[in-house]
Design goal:
8-stranded mixed beta sheet, globular, 4-stranded antiparallel beta sheet, Rossmann fold, single chain, 2 domains, alpha/beta, 12 helices
Length: 316
């Protein structure tokens, strides 16, 4: 009993150390539920079922830091999405391979992005995290343009180049110093993307410059691109790299890394995001509706050792 109270007190103290006093005065939600957007099945997925999927590594990534997951399926009504938004405590936009201007994934992302903007403007703290394709989707939603550039970053690991002051950003100031050093010096961030937001295109777009702070950059030798960013006024975070792959994806391929530093980076990215979600107090109308919505109602499918996603959840 005393140990439990002590752990909760320490957790609250850690969160409060990086939270404005007004927010810290609130009771934290220690049962956060994160929505993950599903997306249309990949054309070459021989295991595909239904019409959409979520890679299980994203689910495990969030669960490893103390959250539960609700899948946000495509082809539902806007009314259903609004109800779901008011029941979850944060949103993850995962990586993948869909059209980030015309897909169902994009339609859902815009609905939840707009709801999150409106909620945060009304002091209803709601975080969003974007990984790879999710990063790219956020840039389109914010700028109303596709400003991405082709880069040679299909399967490589890279160290991060930190922008001035970024170690004191909301995201990185909670990382241990030794981990920040590893991220800056070691090839431990997995990149699996053909498109990137170049520094040049970011700098040339007023909407993006006003909205996002650049935390880290990378280069493919020809183009400097943004690899980590956070919004100035909103709890929105985005990484072009894949923290979830190091602990949960096992294909033997260039760009995959399973070092202790990479695993540690994966945990801290999830931890920071879940810490943000603990400041949100949305909840399902009833326990039965919560149980019905959770990812536990679905069975992940093993796609084989040579699959880029070891396990997927599929949805009708």
């Amino acid at each position: 009993m005393y140990r439990q109270v002590f752990v909760l007190a320490v957790s609250a103290a850690v969160l409060c150390a990086f939270t404005p006093p007004a927010s810290c005065a609130r009771h934290f939600n220690y049962r956060p539920i994160i929505g993950i957007l599903a997306q249309e099945n990949l054309d070459d997925d021989t295991h595909a079922q239904g019409s959409s999927y979520i890679a299980a590594s994203y689910v495990k990534h969030l669960e490893s830091a103390g959250a539960r997951v609700v899948p946000i399926r495509i082809n539902q009504t806007e009314e259903e999405y609004v109800k779901l938004f008011n029941s979850i405590n944060g949103l993850l936009l995962p990586g993948g391979n869909v059209d980030i201007e015309k897909s169902q994934f994009t339609r859902l992302a815009k609905i939840f992005y707009d709801l999150a903007i409106k909620a945060n403007d009304a002091s209803d703290y709601f975080p969003i995290w974007g990984t790879c394709q999710g990063f790219q989707q956020l840039t389109v939603l914010t700028s109303n343009k596709n400003l991405l550039t082709l880069t040679d970053t299909k399967a490589v690991t890279l160290p991060l180049t930190f922008s001035p002051g970024s170690p004191n950003s909301r995201l990185f100031k909670r990382f241990p110093k030794d981990l920040l050093q590893s991220l800056a010096e070691e090839n431990i961030t997995s990149n699996f993307h053909s498109w990137s937001l170049s520094l040049q295109n970011y700098s040339g777009n007023a909407k993006l410059k006003r909205f996002y702070r650049v935390l880290t950059t990378n280069t493919d030798g020809k183009t400097d691109f943004i690899s980590t960013m956070e919004a100035y006024r909103y709890p929105f975070y985005a990484v072009q790299w894949h923290p979830e792959k190091s602990p949960f994806e096992w294909i033997e391929k260039a760009g995959m890394v399973h070092t202790l530093s990479a695993i540690k980076a994966a945990f801290y990215t999830a931890h920071i995001f879940i810490s943000e979600a603990m400041k949100n107090h949305h909840r399902f109308p009833s326990q039965s509706e919560e149980e019905k919505a959770l990812i536990y109602n679905y069975q992940p499918i093993f796609n084989g050792l040579n699959s880029i996603f070891m396990q997927n959840y599929y949805f009708d």
